[in-house]
Q: What sequence folds into this?
């Protein structure tokens, strides 16, 4: 683990980054901070290096990776046939939490894209990430640096929990900023389609390119859907059983109490995750073993920053039954709710 201060003006002089870059260049895996979450990086031009990512994460090999570039001009070395709208989004949001799917160049290892003709590209807004890519002199393929299925890492400590002994090194640049992953958008279809809501909001994208399609998969709000075993899609999930409770404030509180009583009757350890405005009520509550604040009703940015750390904390304390409040599906709330729903296997209870 190399400690690197992201506030240092001149990252170039950092010998740790030079060491980390040499490892990437030579085909090893290095975890590094971005403005969203930590990434697990490998040389995107080498199938052999990229293969190691799938092994270290336990990731299915049909799930493609995002390629990270250090400057906008590097885009043409990764993708071809770049439409005008993609250039417009790049100018508006790079460096930043937006990933665009574009036709892939042959030089990009086929393992990166899981054999797909398109490649996801982004330029991260983090001085340490940018300098690492520049020093490595190759584009860096990087998924989030968690074991597959676990919440994404927002600190180097999280990466250590998941990947110690499986990778060559971690560049520790402190907490990431945004806290949820980049927005992904397919630029090869018209209108372009958002597949994953993230750090750049739908509203921001619409302002630049107008009409945008949305993958219907992340807009449906299901209620108490019984889940057949084969359909159970666990992602970003804590080990404990997570349920979301939505509705009007007093009714949410009443519903949560009712569910917590049931859980306690079954002898389960319990946790609640609420915006900090509701913390006082649940703190030291007899029915709850661990109460965590997840951001504030006044700031979805804070919610996004707290989310993955909170989900991991429930695991650390071995909480078996967890209730979380929901957030408005606007701005960053769309990304927050998408991650929460997946973590809860889409179990939402209407209070
Ligand atoms: O913020 C982020 O995007 C972080 C940091 C490290 O950059 N990375 C990240 O990567 O979240 P990952 O692998 O955890 O998520 C990438 C998502 C996956 O759902 C993957 O299936 C999708 O993007 N993806 C990547 N390339 C794709 C492609 N060519 N076509 C369709 N989906 C793609
Ligand atoms: Mg991921």
A:
């Amino acid at each position: 683990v190399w400690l690197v201060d992201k506030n240092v003006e001149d990252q170039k002089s950092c010998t740790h980054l030079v060491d980390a870059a040499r490892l990437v260049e030579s085909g090893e895996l290095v975890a590094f901070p971005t403005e969203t979450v930590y990434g697990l990086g490998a040389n995107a031009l080498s199938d052999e290096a990229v293969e190691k990512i799938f092994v270290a994460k336990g990731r299915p090999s049909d799930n493609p990776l995002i390629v990270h570039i250090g400057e906008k001009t590097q885009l043409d070395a990764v993708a071809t046939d770049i439409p005008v709208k993609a250039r417009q989004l790049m100018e508006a949001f790079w460096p930043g939490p937006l990933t665009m799917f574009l036709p892939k160049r042959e030089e990009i290892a086929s393992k990166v894209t899981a054999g797909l003709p398109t490649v996801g590209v982004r330029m991260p807004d983090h001085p340490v990430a940018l300098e690492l890519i520049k020093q490595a002199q190759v584009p860096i393929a990087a998924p989030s640096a968690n074991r597959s299925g676990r919440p994404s890492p927002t600190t180097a400590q999280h990466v250590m929990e998941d990947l110690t002994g499986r990778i060559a090194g971690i560049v520790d640049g402190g907490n990431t900023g945004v806290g949820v992953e980049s927005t992904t958008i397919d630029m090869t279809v018209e209108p372009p389609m958002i597949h994953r809501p993230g750090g750049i909001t739908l509203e921001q994208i619409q302002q630049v390119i107008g009409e945008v399609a949305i993958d219907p998969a992340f807009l449906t709000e299901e209620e108490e859907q019984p889940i057949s075993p084969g359909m159970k899609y666990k992602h970003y999930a804590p080990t404990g059983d997570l349920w979301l409770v939505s509705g009007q404030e007093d009714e949410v509180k009443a519903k949560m109490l009712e569910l917590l009583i049931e859980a306690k009757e079954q002898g389960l350890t319990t946790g609640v995750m609420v915006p900090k405005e509701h913390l006082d009520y649940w703190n030291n509550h007899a029915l709850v073993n661990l109460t965590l604040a997840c951001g504030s009703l006044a700031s979805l940015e804070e919610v996004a920053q707290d989310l993955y750390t909170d989900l991991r904390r429930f695991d650390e304390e071995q909480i078996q039954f967890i209730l979380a409040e929901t957030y408005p599906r606007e701005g960053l709330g769309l990304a927050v709710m998408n991650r929460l729903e997946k973590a809860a296997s889409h179990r939402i209870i209407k209070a």
In short: The pocket of magnesium ion (ligand 2) is lined by residues 143-144, 152 (CB under 6 Å).
